[in-house]
Amino acid sequence: NHKLVVFEDVNELYNLAQIRRDFVANASHELRTPLTVLSGYLEMMIDMPSEETQMWQKPLDQMFHQAKRMQSIIEDLLTLSSIESDVLLKAPEAVAVDDILQIMARDQLAIYGEDYEWHFEIAEHLGLKGYAEPLKSVFSNLISNAVRYTPKGGKIQVRWYRDQQGAHFEVQDTGIGILKEHIPRLTERFYRVDTARSRDTGGTGLGLAIVKHALEKQGSFLAIESQIGKGSIFSCVFPAERVLTLKD
Ligand code: ADP
Fold first, then answer.
1. Secondary structure of the chain: what % helix, strand, coil (to 5)?
2. Does the predicted interface ipTM exceed a cut of 0.95?
3. Which one of 33, 137, 175, 192 has the fewest beta carbons within 10 angstroms of its own beta carbon?
């Protein structure tokens, strides 16, 4: 029951897309400050329990938790709109992907080192000509999804390597897996297989949309292979002409 709108002029469609992007970016930006104030006061009340606030402790915790969720959604919406627009205006730069991934590996091991069997295979001196921030979003979203959708005790492998085709980034997990019919829709904004699970683990439903757009800007795209109950592989290839060999 969708209404079909026919655009005579393709520019009109581009303008509409631009208006939508600007609106989302502005609305998100406007919501940031009030939310910071809200969660700031809530945090203060939680940290200073008194006779009066004691009976409110549980609702206060809930409110703080929800305010934090809203903040994550807003941050993701802002990331998405900055990837869709700003990034194009700047010139691509040399990005030390190996260093970025080493730091991420260290952080994951510090937080979840005990919970998973981790394998990091990161080729040294392998970088890209591109945009650092969107690339970081790609890596961090795919790695944090592997953590969030893999029960503790599972195995997570992260690979960064090169071959004739280009540079490959891959995250493989032994997690819950995804039914085939969902795969084509995972990169849509707010599309989730299991909304409750996504929320409980701190998901915003925007992660893979960010990954998709960020990869497009790097001349790459996301490939997803998955088997329910066995695990998933999220991977992408960056074309050879964007691959850099970095010096120390
Ligand atoms: P979310 O914040 O909900 O994780 P994403 O856009 O990152 O949003 O992912 C969209 C959906 O794809 C998730 O809700 C989840 O159902 C599914 N998904 C993503 N990564 C994995 C994974 N590694 N294993 C299983 N399912 C996944």
1. 55, 20, 25
2. yes
3. 33
